[in-house]
Specification:
Keywords: Cytoplasm, Gluconeogenesis, Glycolysis, Isomerase. It is found in: Cytoplasm. InterPro entries: Aldolase_TIM, TIM_sf, TrioseP_Isoase_bac/euk, Triosephosphate_isomerase, Triosephosphate_isomerase_AS. By secondary structure, the protein is of the alpha/beta class. 43% of the residues lie in helices and 15% in strands. It has a single domain, classed as Alpha-Beta Barrel (TIM Barrel), CATH 3.20.20.70. Strands 1-2-3-4-5-6-7-8 form an 8-stranded parallel beta barrel, surrounded by 5 helices. The two termini are 13 Å apart. The protein binds glyceraldehyde-3-phosphate.
Length: 252
């Protein structure tokens, strides 16, 4: 049985003080999470260390929102997988559509980052998804298939099984529009098929696939009950302890 992963991507929100306040609220409001549900928060780089320390003794995991693919070097402003690993960071979001859209991230750099994260035993959450225009033209599956094929290129099966895939239709991110649960599940099932084509049935049934895009406490229950969806990558609704915990509770 696949585990459920509920991840909060705080994006470029919360300074250290606000991050610690949110962690305290999460800690005080949360009861024991269901053993089949993994919970993760991904603060901004500046809050990572403080949040990591504040989460000690809890079963909430911590992840980064991005990293460079090189271990070190003259890459001003970048953070390496070695730095993240040394800090005890367990997950990293790779290829978020905002990185692809605003920071020229390509499938080639996404592929390098995935390989680097896996090499350093940091679990990557790979984001894929189509634009509204691509969906309206009927090429959403082709788009996602290309991303999956290029992003997984050259990654062995034993490593690929550690990749979490987040299907995030770009038109549903931060817009209040969600894909219908049927649309989200159809794409999650299609992603499994792509993984089966690259690897095999075993891996396609094992890989964790999240949905992301305006997930909130009102739609989480329906989305999370879909057969091929194993969790959510939550943006806006993860910035308030109550709404994030409501989503986690629907994952039981
Ligand atoms: O990483 C999270 C996604 O981009 C979704 O963001 P959102 O829940 O604010 O739409």
């Amino acid at each position: 049985m696949r585990k459920t992963l509920i991840a909060g991507n705080w994006k470029m929100n919360n300074d250290v003080e606000a991050s610690l306040k949110l962690v305290e609220s999460l800690k005080s409001l949360s009861k024991d999470f269901d053993s089949n549900v993994d919970v993760l928060i991904c603060p901004a780089f500046t809050s990572l260390y403080s949040v990591k320390e504040a989460l000690k003794g809890t079963n909430i995991n911590i992840g980064a929102q991005n990293m460079h693919f090189e271990d070190k070097g003259a890459y001003t402003g970048e953070i390496s997988p070695v730095m993240l690993k040394n800090m005890g960071i367990e997950y990293v979001i790779i290829g978020h559509s905002e990185r692809r859209q605003y920071f020229n991230e390509t499938d080639e750099t996404v592929n390098k980052k995935l390989k680097a994260a896996l090499k350093h035993n940091i679990r990557p959450i790979l984001c894929v998804g189509e634009t509204l225009e691509q969906r309206e033209c009927g090429v959403e599956k082709e788009t996602v298939k290309n991303q999956i094929t290029n992003d997984f290129a050259g990654i062995e099966k034993c490593e690929a099984e550690n990749i979490v895939v987040a299907y995030e239709p770009i038109w549903a991110i931060g817009t209040g529009k969600t894909a219908s649960s049927a649309q989200a599940n159809e794409m999650a099932s299609f992603i499994r098929m792509c993984v089966k084509d690259i690897y095999d049935l075993e891996l396609s049934e094992k890989i964790i696939i999240q949905y992301g895009g305006s997930v909130n406490k009102d739609n989480a229950s329906e989305i999370l009950s879909q057969s091929d969806i194993d969790g959510a990558l939550v943006g806006g609704a993860s910035l308030k302890a109550e709404s994030f915990l409501d989503i986690i509770n629907y994952a039981k």
